[in-house]
Amino acid sequence: MYPCNFDADKYVIREGDEGSHLYVLAEGELEVEQNGVKLRSMGPGKAFGELAILYNCTRTASVKATKPSLVWALDRRVFQHVMKRTGLQRIDENLFFLKSVPLLSRLSTGSLTKLASVLEQESFSAGTYIIRQGTRGDYFYIISSGKVKVTQQVPDSHEEVEIRELQSGDYFGEQALIKDDVRTANIVALPPSVQCLAIDRESFVQLIGDISELKDKNYDDEGRRTSQSTPPALSSPIHFPLEPIAEFTSVHLHELEVIATLGIGGFGRVELVQNTKDRSQSFALKCLKKQHIVQTQQQEHIYNEKVIMMACRSPFIARLYNTFKDRKYIYMLMEPCLGGEVWSILRDRTHFDESTAQFYAACVIEAFDYLHARGIVYRDLKPENLLLDSQGYVKLVDFGFSKRLGVSGKTWTFCGTPEYVAPEVILNKGHDRAVDYWAVGILMYELLAGTPPFVASDPMKTYNYILRGIDQIDFPRTIGRQAIFLIKKFCKELPAERLGYQRGGIDDIRKQRWFLGFDWNGLRSRVLRPPFQPMVRSSSDAGNFDIYPREVELPPDENSGWDADF
Predict the structure, then answer these.
(1) Of residues 515, 506, 486, the one with CA closest to residue 360
(2) Which residues are tagged catalytic?
(3) Per residue in 454-485, pLDDT tens?
């Protein structure tokens, strides 16, 4: 952070400006104004502008100094850099240490990375009983520094006999976790202190509970394995084709005629267009304002969207056929999904019954299965991004927040719709595909209840509700017991505990009782009857979408050249 001095009547923040700093008042007095009306005064110690360190947002009020004031500022880029660096350092240190533990040396790098991200560092002073004989075991420990002694109680006596010492790289507590049994010995910290990496029962069983060596471990000292194996190599990177679909290379931007607008947003609009050379051909043309993309620094997100969508070949993901550009817009020529938005249908019906929600959630799960198998995290699940094709099947659209992370990568970019953001995104801990499973739980709730579980008047309140957790939510009667159970398994606070992210992967989701009897094969082969059959009269029928006015004001030119690859 760095200090900033403001004279009396000088503005620290102006309403409507783009914000990128968090501020803390150290000395002086500030006044908060909105629409020219004074709301309140602030004294030393008060923090404000906190949303700006999470993402690029517009200031909703002005803050003015009423007397000479000293304010400390924190820039968003610095904050995110620090959080990313420290997060990566923690994971790398844990990963390096785990690889040195003979017990874990056969695990894949992906499994070790997942394990490294959930390990908790715990400190124990000399003489502390880390484990007591006869108690139930809830944690598995790996010693990262220091030594412990292993003792056992002498029968019919208060005396303890020391069996051996364990040091850095050794582990203990695994037998009670595997066998669900009581601890058979005491573990006592030796001077000066002991640092351990700890993992709880649920995470242990899901991540490393199937290691045969753990189950069959011989406690004789000479039986300890000391050799180290090389983890299996990562799979070769997946090739991402960037060329447009061959059959649509003959379609040119000037040959497309706008029929109707399918949707509008901050970056531009999506038009239903028809090929004037072949009236049977219609497309969804996504038109993104280049200047707005540059102003909000979204160039990388837009490029990721092109690369990922051009490569996807899933019946549950809308196809991207080609891209164009001019001085004002980036254009994405896409498969038209004329059945309308799931959000519009939900709005009209207020909420869905369980079979309808089940079908739409299953379509999303199939799309995520395809994406996650290719190392892609979606990060923007919500009913507005689920479109129906003419048969009533869901297709995922809008990949602006998607990113390819690879097998075991993490990312620190804050993005997503506030009501669907996972706790680790809010806390800048680094995130991966586990955020998509959190979002599936939120989607299930919204489909069944009509609104998301975490809703507030402003984003910061929404984030605070999310951090309190799903257990603080009162579920409405429209959501059945099995659905509640499943939602809570998706919305676990710890990413490694979420359904779909664990050892069984997405198959664990398909086996849940809420999906009992659901025809997954019928869904994939598109013979399962959708719950809602949209009325689509022709390839140019936009009747399932809201009516939007035509765009009359054109954006200014943007010629920086960042879009050379479009």
Answers:
(1) 515
(2) 380
(3) 999 889 899 999 999 999 999 999 899 999 99
